[in-house]
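Human: If only I could read backbone structure tokens as easily as an amino acid sequence. Underneath my words sits a plain record pairing an amino acid chain with its backbone structure tokens. Take your time, and here it is.
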Amino acid sequence: EIGVFEMKEKGLDEVANPSAVFLSERPAGAAGSVVTASMEGTRPILVELQALASSTSFGTPRRTILGLDQNRVALLAAVMEKKLGMHLMGYDIFMNVAGGVKVGEPAVDLAVVAAIASSFLDKAIPENTIVLGEVGLTGEVRAIGQIDTRISESKKMGFTRCLVPDSNLKRIPDIEGIEVSGIKKVSEAVDTLF
């Protein structure tokens, strides 16, 4: 299990709702920003992924990644090149998980793709949308675990739309107040978001 604490005058104080803290300074309508849900033990935590794709003047583009697996992001950028036709080889990619959190699970893959695509296209992802899913090398979106827990936390935090792997849809109970869309391929996710 993970515990989140804040240093105050009298010492460490427990943060009851880490998701609210990590999303508190999220910029409104900013391209390259997306929210996803990461599981830390049995606890879902909503985090903001930020991406910046900017054209490079060097022969080899840089990939500077904080809080995510650098190799995983490079792999996802390659999938985007091949399956979405986005020419990212001419772009430096910078990625960050806001708040200094480290996210290691593949369930945030689709959010990484969405953040990079958002920055590349310079189009913001709707603020009420959360993105979940693992991405395979052929561009397919694969099922993830504990989907209902992630969606419930998203609803609690005020999100009204959730993109999830299509294969997860049959395992999700009806949750009122949040629209859940099933995604089969990364191209479908980009079409839905933008």
Q: What stands out?
A: The two ends are 36 Å apart (CA to CA). The first helix runs from residue 18 to 23. The longest strand covers residues 43-55.
